[in-house]
Amino acid sequence: MKYIFISTLCLFFGACQQNKPHSSNEGSADPHSYSNPQQAVVKHLDLDLKVDFESHILSGRAEWTIENGTNSDTIIFDTRGLKIEKVVLGEDVKETSFTLGKEDKFLGQPLKVHIKPSSTKVTIWYKTSEEAAALQWLTPAQTAGKKHPFLFTQSQAILARTWIPCQDSPGIRFTYNAVVTVPHELMAVMSAENSQKLRTDGVYHFKQVHAIPSYLMALAVGDLQFQKTDERTGVYAEPVTLPKAAWEFAEMGKMVNAAEKLYGPYRWGRYDVLVLPPSFPFGGMENPMLTFATPTVIAGDRSLVSLIAHELAHSWSGNLVTNATWNDFWLNEGFTTYFERRIVEAVYGREEAEMQEVLGFQALKESIGESGDDTKLKGNFAGRDPDEGMTDIAYEKGYFFLKTIERAAGREAFDKFLKGYFDQDAFKSVTTEEFVKYLESNLLAKNAGLSDKIGVSGWIYQTGLPSNIAPVNSGKFKAIDSLVAQWKATNKTAGLRDRIKTTNELLYFIKALPESLSASQMALIDKELAITKSGNAEIQCAWYTLAVRHQYKPAYARTEEFLVNVGRRKFLLPLYKEMAATPEGKAWAIQIYKKARPNYHSVSYNTIDQILK
User: Fold this and answer.
1) Active site residue 231
2) Most CB contacts within 10 A, which of 85, 233, 261, 368?
3) Alpha-carbon Rg of the chain, whole angstroms?
4) What is the C-alpha to C-alpha distance for residues 193 and 498, in angstroms, rounded to an integer?
5) CA atoms of 52 and 261, how far apart (whole Å)
């Protein structure tokens, strides 16, 4: 999703000893998993599921090929809300005993299965619950086409365990095959090799030959069609959405080519995108071979396709080399944000990348002010939902740390270093400390004084922003600063539409407006730029947030429509937070939320529930 270092090693390891395992899963290296891979670990999954839209339940079996190097009599899986019907060992389908442990709010329950020292296969027959947090079941009315129901999963961070009994840690990787049976009029797709045509029998077969962690398990079922954009990229979407989506993402092939020139070959075969209904809670989810994407990036002018660059970049930073725990989340998202902007620069030019960098820095400063002790790159989310770490700290502070290394070492040397990192740790999961060791050995030790120049430990283990953060600037935005200053001096808006040309420029302009802004001034700006009527979700969110803050009521109807129809968490949270800041606004928010909540995924509504109490 769009989200080091050592003899000096003792100092840095000392800084992260606080990341103890959660008390209810002692023995695991991952504080968010009950599994104990040092004892017995999964290696391959054969999944067979039936999708029932009437009961909102998945049922079937997960057959795990395991490795039991310690001759253990137990293997532990993560589950949450699953009904375990039976567990069998080996090919003779002989039932074995199992227990479900005490339930934890975030972690669910450990499934402890009795195995033999010689066991190589464990098959778990199970059903999901109607409340499975990873699954969102949509009625036809909640889809773009309005004809058929839709199902999609969101497994990151620790929700795979709500639809598959698994060792749900990003540090554990496995290959998989799957057979999924769905209503004959619907198509199923997964994070694997996919069919590009509807199967009339409703039975779909999938294969993922590369080892992935459980959070990259993904399934979607709906009224879908496919359209290729080049020989190895294409788009899945509902028929009514497909033409617009295929046009919007037509340059995906250029992005893949640019990425390969930077950091080596794309190793996953195809790169396709699935456009989901509006309730999808994220901009995109980097499921291997098939990015899940929000329709809010379909702006009609390709102005928001940097999101695709971000998810594509995850094919190297995240999917290929993965954070070993969610406390190391910045390794996924900071690297990907850096890589994304390099792709954008290569395909769309330096000016575009500079504008995105400035906007990213603005978002980072806001997060620094809101996140308290959680502004360290190396997180500590033991005992908490790791989704709390999905902030601009991981993305943007991670980006600026890597940008600082690039400035200190030089771009050519840093690119060589990153390519080597992706090659050495391909299809592996790494910790922050392991990356630090690689950085020291392969870059810092080769350049006298470079370590002091970068200040690695300050970036990773200290709160806030180090003083050596790379400066940001944009010639385009300097021109917008002049426009804002001129507007402040004259209050005249005539001519703004001729000078603010792009989405990024308009977004920057909105964010640069003063806190003293009045509703009457917003009306004049709106008359000139027609922002309230915008169909661009980034612009809508920024403008509607200002409308709530300054009580610009002509935008209220569109604000309500936006909140009811869009499920992307990035847009919902600032709006609901702004509304909840006043009693009047909070009452209005609750009124809207009663209508909108059924359209939101659990990843979104769990947070909004807390905002609105």
Assistant:
1) no
2) 233
3) 24
4) 47
5) 44
Residue 412, phi then psi, degrees to nearest 5: -60, -45
Cα separation, 320 vs 210, in Å, equals 9
Opening angle at CA 258, ends 253 and 260, nearest 5: 95
Specify the DSSP class assigned to residue 104: B
Alpha carbons 175 and 289: distance in angstroms, whole number = 14
Size (the chain), residues: 613
Residue 435 corresponds to which tokens in the numbers above? 């990356």
Instruction: Give percent of the chain above pLDDT 90.
Output: 90
* Beta carbons within 8 Å of 369's beta carbon, 6+ residues apart: none
Instruction: Count other C-beta atoms under 10 Å from residue 469's C-beta.
Output: 16
Angle between helices 556-565 and 569-579 (to 10 degrees): 140
Structure tokens at 604: 């979104």
157 preceded by a cis bond (ω within 30 of 0): yes
Summarize pLDDT for 349-368 with one digit per residue, the tens.
Answer: 999 999 999 999 999 999 99
Cα distances (angstroms) measured from residue 610 to each of 248, 262, 606 = 35, 42, 7
Distance, CA of 553 to chain centre:
33
**What does the block give as tokens for 484?**
């804002």
Q: What is the pLDDT of residues 312-360, one digit of tens each?
A: 999 999 999 999 999 999 999 999 999 999 999 999 999 999 999 999 9
For residue 220, is the peptide bond before it cis, meaning its omega torsion is within 30 degrees of 0? no
**Set 395, 461, 544, 600: catalytic member:** 395
421 contacts: CB under 8 Å, gap ≥ 6: 321, 435, 438, 442
* Annotated active-site residue in 238, 248, 251, 311: 311
Q: Taking CA 13 as the corner, what is the angle to CA 11 and CA 17, rounded to the nearest 5 degrees?
A: 120
For residue 426, the tally of other CB atoms under 10 A from its CB is: 13
Amino acid, single-letter form, for residue 538: E
| Three-class secondary structure assignment of 411-434 | HHHHHHHHHHHHHHCCCEEECHHH
Please state, in angstroms and rounded to a whole number, the distance separating the CA atoms of residues 389 and 568: 17
Report the alpha-carbon distance of residue 80 to residue 99 in Å, rounded. 13
Q: Could you confirm whether 395 is annotated as catalytic? A: yes
